[in-house]
From TrEMBL, chains A, B, C, D:
Known role: Catalyzes an amino-pyrimidine hydrolysis reaction at the C5' of the pyrimidine moiety of thiamine compounds, a reaction that is part of a thiamine salvage pathway.
Keywords attached to this entry: Hydrolase, Thiamine biosynthesis
Domain of life: Bacteria
Residue ranges annotated for the Thiaminase-2/PQQC domain, each copy included: 8-210
Protein name: Aminopyrimidine aminohydrolase
EC class name: hydrolase
Keyword Hydrolase: yes
Organism for this UniProt entry: Spirosoma terrae
Family: Belongs to the TenA family.
One cellular component term from this protein's GO annotations in UniProt: cytosol
Pathway(s) it belongs to: Cofactor biosynthesis; thiamine diphosphate biosynthesis
GO molecular function: thiaminase activity
PANTHER family: BIFUNCTIONAL TH2 PROTEIN, SI:CH1073-67J19.1-RELATED
Pfam families recorded: TENA_THI-4
Length: 216, 216, 216, 216
């Protein structure tokens, strides 16, 4: 069992909760209220900008120049996806650009930035991994089950790309390599970081589903 | 009007919400259920460790050596207060040490760490200021109104110290000085950071009052 | 006069010293001893890896997402140029890959990494600017004067590219924009950082010319 | 053999070079020209401010709160020593406060700041260790051999303090503990960092002895 196999096993209950979440189910069925999808995409654009920053921090702090290059490419791609959301989906689904992160997006992005700034690269890599890996798995799950006449069709199709699949595999290989070089204590921190980001993936969908707003 | 006067004016509605919050009211009256107080102190200990880290980052990034010294002293003091919680209040109020940050503590600490790692020192100073300043004001408010036979008496009394009052004044002076040197755009970021941390102060108390736990 | 015009004026004596340096003169004439060129390219490969890290830090810390994208592209490009050195020039000029930074490369890269980690983005941008700008100007200077039968012909020609010229213009525009938003104190730090990196450009060539090695 | 024993063995030739350096010899004999001592103390004051920043970064990035506290105390102490230089030795030896770091101080401080910002805490700890450990050993060496009628008597005596000895022991214990938790690759980086800082200790004295100035 690879280290990343173990990571996935650790979050098995969280992953099941994500697949069972109303947001995922209704998106698949094409029954998700527009407001929830709009909320989600608007927050996702804000998320991706910080995800790019977190990946840039991993680039800056990697010892190995192959990893520096790989993380700069991931970082660049995250911003290009953010741009694509603005240029395509914001228009397509009538979404207003927002600047205010709602609670789950706020918690998740600050966790990624703090972790990739301050913890080891291995722990930072484990923290950014769920956004690659869970996204791919949930994406495949939705893509395979999505009804044909789905109003979110255009967006769901982007999940099927091979380019993203390849990125996830590269990120998994980096994480396993960093885990191999880490001691047991650092591996424990990697597992904690992976689990925390996986929880926050669930919260990200849940915030959109509940239209969560700040109370003060 | 100084810059910090303006900061306080900005958060006036948030400050009012804090004073009116059930946690503050019941603490003052001595009617707060023990479990809420235990939750609060346990989370506060976890918070203070990261608050110290955030202050150390400001020390590391300050241009002025007076500020380096001041921030190292604040950072050291935050850990000493964390120690005092463990050594005194954990025993006094039968609190179990915890390692899991609940949602508000998690969001707040990661925001402080990300901001003090990545934003300018001026913006980082504005982010750490509410924990000094709101705490002093709420502390005075509670201290002045607290009933005599209050089970939280020992803890409330710590609010009355002059040492803490002096720290807050020093932190206000640093913030005003940094704001004076900042351009309008950076001042805007300072105001955003101050407001965000002030919101998170409310959430910190609210999490204890609602015994908030992670949903997954 | 733009802010960057002023930066250039500040370093006018340093720039003159670079143009008059034996390394630049002998490179232009094709008379530079091979060992000096080998030393230079080997150190340049080590430099570029850290230059990429410094640019990634600026990406991570930029508030504006256009700047995040731009800095990730610069960061990626620096690694691609480092790769090109290894794949093309190391073979062409019989250069051994090295892992030990010599004094000038060591001082320069650590200055860039420390500055982009800890100072404001504006100051960090001023620190990375000389590697773009002085390189372009010196490159043009050498290209225009280089003798035809120059053993370093292949390498000198890369200076003539429009892509690099465009990058320098983008970096100048970012620096001017960040300076406009900065207060006078921060602008002073930007000027210091620009001057320091410009000095280190001179030292970088001088180390190659003198085959400088660590004394202990 | 502990990890730190191995570190010391690694730098044995560098340590011998330091003991044999003219600066150390002439300081011990009281024959060091005043200008060299002035240069050294002035640069040391600039060094200590950044040494404090580097220690604050280690505080900020330590997982263990005991280490956070210890590093904040080291960081605070470094600034207090810097203050003492200004208040006592600058007057006593007629030293002008300076703001310009000379080459060795520049290289060393930027290395410490870049390493403690970006590398793991274990590697950062190895980088700051020589300033504790070599200083103590060289200090003892000078103290035991110094002539009585030494014009640098007041300064040399500060080496004899038990407080500093205790700090060094604490720093050695932290380094050994971090090394125990590190994998082989990270231990290799620790050894590199320790050796590099040790070299830079030699350069720091050598710059004072040669009154080294920037060439451009």
């Amino acid at each position: 069992m690879t280290f990343t196999d173990q990571l996935w096993q650790d979050i098995s209950p969280i992953y099941e909760s994500i697949l069972k979440h109303g947001f995922v189910g209704e998106l698949t069925e094409g029954a998700l209220p527009t407001a929830m999808f709009q909320y989600y995409i608007q927050q996702d654009a804000l998320y991706l900008a910080d995800f790019s920053r977190a990946l840039s921090l991993l680039a800056a702090r990697s010892v190995n120049t192959d990893d520096v290059l790989q993380f700069t490419q991931f970082a660049q791609n995250a911003i290009l996806v953010e741009r694509a959301l603005h240029e395509t989906y914001f228009a397509l689904y009538d979404i207003q650009p927002g600047t205010a992160k709602m609670p789950a997006c706020f918690a998740y992005t600050n966790f990624l930035l703090a972790t990739t700034s301050l913890q080891s690269v291995a722990v930072g890599a484990a923290a950014v991994l769920p956004c690659f890996w869970i996204y791919r798995e949930v994406g495949k799950y939705i893509y395979q089950r999505a009804v044909r006449e789905n109003p979110y069709h255009a967006w769901i199709d982007t999940y099927a790309g091979e380019a993203f699949d390849e990125s996830v595999n590269l990120m998994l290989a980096i994480t396993d390599r960093l885990a191999d070089a880490a001691g047991a204590f650092e591996q424990g921190l990697m597992r904690d970081a992976f689990r925390t980001s996986s929880q926050l993936e669930w919260y990200f969908w849940n915030d959109a589903y509940t239209q969560n707003r700040w109370l003060v």
